[in-house]
Amino acid sequence: MEQKYEEEIQMLQQEIEMLEAEQEETLRTIFIKHGDRLQEELKSVCEERGGGGAHKRALSKLHTEVRELEKDLRRQTEINGIALNECFVKTLHKSERKLVQQLRLAGHCSVLLFQVEFAVTEIQEDDALLRRVTELNIVVDGVEFKDFSAFVSRMEDTKDLLLFFRTLRTFSERCEERRQTFQHFQAPGD
Amino acid sequence: MDSQMEPMEHGVLNHLMALERGGMRPQDQHQFERLEMLKVKALTLRAKRDQLKHQTDAIKILKDKISKDLPLQDDDNAGGLIEMQQSLLTAWKMQLKDLQRAHHLIGGYDLVECKEGKSVCVAFHTAFEGVYLDTYNMELDLTRTVQISRHNIPPSLPLESFAKQNLQKDLKAFLRTLSQNLNALAGRRQQVSLVKELVGSVEVMESNQLCNILVLMCTEQGETPKAVLCTLEYGDLTQCLPTRVSIESEDKTISESPQWKKNQSLLLESPAHTALLTMRRMGSIA
Residue A104 — pLDDT band, cuts 50, 70, 90? Predict the structure, then answer.
């Protein structure tokens, strides 16, 4: 009798996990494809009041959460000097101790545009989280230097995602400095 | 524990306590309690599963409508409207969380405001060749001037000097300098680990906290194996590669040989473990 319940409980827990994962995937897909249009709809729809108290409370809680997240994102963008316009996450494997994801990012660092695709694997050991980049593809627009392409190739080979972004930031700052210096020395009317 | 219980479970417990007062046999009581708990858990999970299924179906319908460019609002279904808003907001929330994670993964500072904006906490993530290493943290007090209030930056780094240079006038430059130095340190330290792990035949004779000097003892392949000492000096602490490599051996012909001149270049141009593995592969060292 007990066993019957235990089996049912296990089955239900698995079903719930699956449904949650499915929901996540569908929501992600909706947002990737139609994010802009949805934000428009949301703005117009949210003006209306409807539904009961509990629903309204849940909705306004979600609204607050979204606003907080947007605020936080602005903070990160500002301090990191990296603006992410596109972010596509695909979870290839998720278990209690292991997570494998593929990410595709597009954005810019000042005037330099980039597209980065990478795969990351996380393994939870007893007392530490091991994380590594297993694939890396980088495309940068707005840089004509041959050395930079060699640098990007090297980053792809060594999977040094963090070094790439650190260098991109430094490089874009120097480009900006150079541009300002050049402007400074240009005679008016040139 | 109490806060996690559903209202239904509370009801069951009261019921059980009443039974206890009524005088059941202890072993029957245990069995009964467990069975009741399982029954409740199954009921709760079933309800959750059903709710999720309903939500997931609604979201799929939403996705369908969007793809077909149909209007999302269903005038005759006000409840559906609320659900749709909830789904959309949840989707938006998920996208924002993905973006946060992306910033975190590409080595962002994960800046967090604390104490109502009076201070901020930043994290310095380090990585080397795709492997994420330690994360260091710092709290900056912003009340009058910018002050470092707490941190776990390794003492071997000249933190005060960095702070003196940039902290007040250019916070981003300060963060950048620290991040560069911490990553370079983590990278040099990781190379030492990898040398020990991957190239057992080479002995690490000397290293230090700052990992700015590395002395390796290699064994030259030959009729009589000879010891070759490689000293790597890292003059630029923002870099993972040495600025100077010296080769020493009892046998002068070894250290002067073209083979070892090449090895010296390898050690200057590539990470220590990579250079040593190449040297081993080429038969230069054991």
Answer: very high
Edge-to-edge strand order for the sheet containing B226-233? B203-206, B213-220, B226-233, B244-249
- Residue at token pair 């959460």: A65
Count the residues in chain A: 190
| Residues A103 and A118 sit within 8 Å (Cβ to Cβ) | yes
Q: Name beta bridge partners: B132.
A: B127
**Per-window interface: A 97-126 vs B, CB < 8 A:** 103, 105, 116, 120
Q: Are B179 and B219 in the same domain?
A: no
Residue B124 sits at the chain A interface (C-beta within 8 Å): no
pLDDT exceeds cutoff 60 at A46: no
Q: Domain end: B185, B215, B238, which one?
A: B185
CB–CB of A27 and B90 under 8 A?
yes
Q: How far apart are CA A130 and CA A111, in angstroms?
A: 34
* Interface ipTM above 0.85: no
Which of B154, B185, B216 marks a domain boundary? B185
B127/A131 Cα distance (integer angstroms): 10
Encode pLDDT of B105-116 as tens digits. Answer: 999 999 999 888
> How many domains is chain B built from?
2
Cα nearest neighbour of A58 on chain B: B86
Interface test with A, best of B85, B179, B239 (most A CBs within 10 A): B85
Task: Tell me the pLDDT band of B1, cut-offs 50, 70 and 90.
Answer: very low
Chain B 183-242, CB below 8 Å of chain A: which residues? 183
Domain of B113? 101-185
Tell me the per-residue pLDDT of A2-22, one tens digit each, with 9 for 90 and over. 788 889 999 998 899 889 888
